[in-house]
Amino acid sequence: MRGSRTVTAVAMASVLAGTAACGSDNRALTFVSTGSSFQDNQKTAWQEPFTAESGIEVRNDGPVDEAKLRAMVDAGKVSWDVVDTSAAAAEQYCGTYLEPLDFSIVDRDAYPPETVSECGVPAYFYSIIFMYDTTKYGDRPPRTIADFFDPERYPGRRMVPPEIAVGLLEDALLADGAHPDQLYPLDVDRALRKVDVIKDVTTFAETYGQMQQAMVDGQVDMALVSTARAHQALSAGAPFEPVWDKTIVNWNDLVVPKGSPNREEAMKFIAFIAGDEPSARFSELASVQPVNEQVKPNFDEVQRRIDAFSPEHRHSVVLGNARWWARNFDAVTEKFTAWLAG
Amino acid sequence: MSSSTVATGTAGTASTGRGRRPRMVNWTLLPAAAVLLVFFFYPLATIVWRSITEPAFGLDNYTVLFTDGVSVTVLLRTLRTALIVALVALVIAYPYAYAMTRVSKRGRALLTVLVLLPFWTSVMARNFAWYLLEQRGGLIERFLAALGIDGVVLLGSVTGVTVAMVQVMLPFMVLPLYSGMSAIDRRLLDAATSLGASWRTAFAKVYFPLSLPGVVSGFSLVFIVTLGFFITPALLGTPQQSLVAQVIETRVSDLLDFPGAGAFGAVLLVVTLLVLFAVSRIARPTAALNQAVDRG
Q1: Which domains does chain A have, with CATH numbers?
Q2: CB pairs under 8 A between A and B
Q3: Chain B contacts of A204, Cβ < 8 Å?
């Protein structure tokens, strides 16, 4: 997921490790994702079976950092081959920092048609679900997304994701009465006016890991949190429950940096990930949704509780619009940063 | 006055001996200068250059900074935070450093270790420790609650960030102060009291001015390091109270706006240099500083 920040030291260490590992064997791909257990799951579900099938080794690097990607492309020294990033970034940097995909290798039909773009195909869907602490609200728990933005009736500390493009503004507009089908183009000013109401009682997370930790430690009473982190928090015993009013769903894309040294192998790897087995396996490990809805992952009990795509929760799903975000990400980020820091 | 004349005299003597020494000095400076040139000045120049040439040649990136309504706020907030941190650290560290010069050898060793121990601990570890102390249900909240002050959560507040920053920066204040104070000849104090000054007057008129070089170096060190602080405000603060480093980080990693970030960095650098210049001006009239500068 976009812009997730880990300690620079870790990044530096992995860069060094990456450089050290750079040997003569160029039939090895470098895969870049968010790090942590999420990337370990990608290793188990995607990389190991891929290597077993094709003989192509996959190395790991991280975290995803568009600034680093840009610096590598500008300097002509690209060491990344496949990057797991937001669909908006895949559109935004297509052609400038990213290679167009080779659709003779990557099968277009393996994905829902509206999710395929020139430089990226989706890897998985992830939902931003509205969760609340069951010990805080007793028999009068929040029921709608509007309750998240109502600190009068529902006092308490809130937490929202570290990225702006994953649902906070969408949720604010929905809470303000906007129709799910007419969210885009986002009325950013209206959304920010709504978020303003909870600004003082809201922690704007720095990382997704921080969200998970805050839920486990009881630092927050409500959160708009990604399924993967919600699953980890619930498994660790955090007393949270989801509210199935509105759930913003986005997807991450797999992209190939411009000038990747292993372009061909990268395409093969991306094509492999779309397969039923790797998709299902990763969804089960990481608590995300396969992009191909024909694939039915075998979720555990906790995962079923937070699965926005199950028949009983499906009504809440509102799809994010990566195309709109790609065109407006910079302008919105500037406005949002100014609003936040001002 | 007379001591300043002495100081200039010393400098004069030093400069007459310049015939032989400088060449050797130049050679010894070479490796450090080369490292600085390659790893500091060159990248710095690149950043500044990009900030005035991208996307078009001109000062657009700088105009935006002063007109976007947020950068100036953030800059002022950062300066204010750094000033508060440096002042609080000074107030805490001054008596501590003074005590270090007054205790026995073993006592001094103990006090030094107490300062250095956190200094040797990773900044990340210390920040996480503060995170735990300051969080909801953390030690600080429970302690204050026991005293009857309810609901104090420092995490995510400016106060919380400031407290942690002071602790992180304290060694940078104590050590220069101590080195400055330990060089002070205590016989001057005895002389002052023997001439009829009260202890307080002797301290204010003799000891304190002589300790100023240490104060200035400690204060400027803490102030400048605090200006660029990233981890502590990012971890313990909130984006609502962003400091410069956080805003630059957003520009670089979310917007890929390298020139804009470079411009902000350059402005921060200029402001820092201005502050340093101002500090050195304020401290200048003291003979002690002149002496220290001449010696250095």
Answers
A1: 9-125+251-304 (3.40.190.10), 126-249+308-341 (3.40.190.10)
A2: 64
A3: 238-240
